[in-house]
Design a protein that fits this description.
Serine Threonine Protein Phosphatase 5, Tetratricopeptide repeat, five-stranded mixed β-sheet, 5 strands
Length: about 600
């Protein structure tokens, strides 16, 4: 066991033995701080024991702060074991308890952690939402240390979304706050991120200025050796990119030694890749191959998926024949697996948000219903004329009976139409599955054989056909709202198309109880939104799209407006996609309208009855 764990056992024994004399608040703070230190030391065993102690103390005292901290420590355990979906779940629980306690600082910190997990899973839209919500809690209490971190992460998100001007703005905001906090580590993070931004823009002279500014920081090598290694490595990369080869390998080896001494094995894999690329550019393939293999080993050991892929790609270039093909196949399989995992993790995050928020709503609803029942009991006790009530009830029953039979017949017809829609969706799903599993698979095998036969032109054409088949299978695939809610499906769809050149605004989505609406209706609305966005992007050359959902008089309404080039509706016919949407809307007794003028954009309106 670690030294930290023995210290924990020693202090916890003393604390519990003196529990009668020690104030509870002091004991609680000591326990929580020991948990934080265990996490920073990456001591999972100690952290697990402390988490159990926190849970035990909560059960004795019923202190909700301890319950929030218990879920927080569970999240930290999940992070140490690389189970980010569990970490997201426990952070979410901790955040919700802190919200009820009006603990703005704790809520802001948990939202910061949630946003970082989402950013690492490439859920950039969800991450941005978490960080913006964190600002809403942290700015009123002016917690500059955490505000600094939030703005730095918003800069990273903006970079991933190719919003470079926003990224620079957020990093400069971080540096302005840093003038107050004087947090040297956060200052170095921001400086390094600005350098990396210009490095990505291939403006290496600007990048070098920032890296050298960081390296000039007072005693950085002694105070913050990890940041020193990071800045030095990035500086070396930019200098080498400008054909400055002076002491390149010596400086890379220095970085490698520092990272190994800090047990920063993730960073070690990155440095080995940089060294491998350096030797590759010098055509020293034997040395390049050694460092690429070292990078692969450390990347696998630390679950550093980005460097894992980079190492495999390098090895496929540095080797030949069967060995090269083996590395390439491993790269393709890992890349496909990671894309699938990221998509699954993104959906899992959305599901966790939906389920926890749903439970909160259900608890509120139960409370409201109980109050309503109590009011009804009091009301009935006050009634004195049962006869009048009976007479009125009889008249109402007669009216309801007539209405019931009319509505029942209408409902049966409507349900039959919904069942037809479900049957059609099943057919589409079968076709999509055959295209993806059988046709695409056969094409991939044929593509590999063509490449082995060095028929590269034919192989590329076949690759394009395979991509078209996969795209078609994805378009035909049915959308399920059982695991991921309609609300999150729409958000994910919008985030897939949202870009600096195409701004998409969605309104009214959260104001509707989608769980009460039939899946066939939600599926049709989803397809309508997707078809309209694709048309606006591909044909209308739109830069802005507004999507509005609403429910009124037992119908759901969807209105989609873009600022594209528009068209003359009296001349141009609808495309096959919109024509199919119109047919499906009308089959559900709905209404479909398209209004457009040349130069004035296009507006699509859909109305679907909820109960026929």
């Amino acid at each position: 066991m670690s030294k930290l764990f023995f210290l924990f056992l020693f202090y916890s024994t003393i604390l519990f033995s003196q529990k009668k004399d020690l104030p509870l608040n002091i004991f609680k703070k000591e326990l929580i701080e020991s948990g934080r230190q265990a996490y920073f030391a990456k001591d999972l065993v100690t952290l697990q024991h402390i988490t159990t102690k926190v849970d035990s103390l909560h059960k004795k005292t019923k202190d909700s702060i301890l319950l929030a901290k218990y879920y927080h420590f569970k999240a930290l355990q999940a992070k140490l074991t690389y189970t980010n979906d569990s970490a997201f779940y426990y952070y979410h629980l901790s955040k919700n308890i802190s919200k009820k306690l009006d603990d703005s600082l704790a809520v802001g910190r948990r939202l910061l952690s949630l946003g970082i997990l989402q950013r690492e899973a490439k859920d950039y839209l969800g991450s941005e939402i978490s960080f913006i919500e964190a600002l809403e809690y942290l700015e009123p209490i002016n917690t500059t240390v955490y505000l600094e971190r939030v703005y730095n992460n918003l800069g990273l998100i903006s970079e991933e979304l190719n919003q470079e001007n926003d990224a620079i703005k957020y990093y400069n905001k971080t540096l302005n706050i840093n003038k107050i906090t004087k947090d040297q580590r956060n200052f170095l993070f921001a400086i390094n991120n600005l350098g990396l931004l210009y490095q990505k823009k291939i403006e290496h002279n600007k990048a070098i200025d920032y890296f050298e500014k960081g390296l000039a920081f007072d005693n950085i090598q002694e105070k913050y050796s990890d940041q020193y290694a990071l800045l030095l490595e990035n500086l070396v990369f930019s200098k080498f990119s400008l054909d400055n080869t002076t002491k390149i390998i010596q400086q890379y080896n220095k970085v490698l030694d520092i990272k190994k001494s800090l047990n920063d094995l993730k960073g070690v894999s990155t440095t080995h890749i940089n060294i491998s690329n350096y030797y590759k550019d010098l055509n020293q393939n034997k040395k390049a191959l050694f460092h690429a293999k070292e990078a692969l080993q450390y990347a696998k050991q630390t679950h550093n998926n980005k460097r894992w892929l980079g190492a495999l790609e390098l090895l496929s270039w540095l080797t030949t024949g069967k060995e090269s093909n083996q590395y390439l196949q491993e790269y393709i399989q890992l890349n496909d697996s990671l894309v699938q995992h990221e998509r699954s993790l993104k959906n899992q995050f959305a599901k966790i948000r939906y389920e926890t928020d749903k439970k909160e709503k259900e608890n509120t609803l139960l409370k409201t219903e109980n109050e309503k029942k109590q009011a009804e009991i009091s009301f009935h006790k006050q009634q004195t004329t049962i006869g009048w009530l009976f007479a009125i009830a009889s008249l109402l029953a007669l009216g309801l009976s007539i209405s019931f039979f009319i509505l029942r017949r209408r409902k049966l017809v409507y349900n039959a139409q919904l069942q037809k829609e479900e049957a059609r969706e099943n057919e589409r799903q079968q076709i999509a599955k055959s295209l993806h599993d059988e046709v695409a698979g056969d094409l991939r095998l044929l593509h590999q054989r063509l490449e082995k036969s060095q028929l590269f032109e034919e192989a590329q054409k076949l690759e394009n056909v395979k991509d078209n088949v996969r795209n078609l299978s994805h378009q035909l695939s049915s959308i399920s709202f059982d695991k991921v809610s309609f609300n999150d499906q729409i958000i994910n769809l919008v985030s897939d198309y949202f870009s600096p050149n195409l701004k998409i605004k969605v309104t009214g989505l959260k104001g509707i109880e989608w769980s009460e609406i039939n899946n066939s209706i939600k599926r049709l609305l989803f397809l309508s939104v997707r078809e309209s966005i694709q048309n606006s992007q591909k044909h209308a050359q739109a830069t802005q799209i507004t999507i509005n959902f609403s429910v009124h008089k037992k119908s759901v309404f969807l209105e989609i407006t873009d600022n594209g080039v528009g068209f003359d509706t009296s001349v141009k016919k609808q495309g096959i996609g919109l024509h199919n949407i119109q047919e499906r809307v009308e089959q559900l007794k709905g209404k479909f309208f398209i209004m457009s003028e040349v130069g004035n954009g296009t507006k699509t309106q859909i109305q679907i009855p909820l109960n026929g």
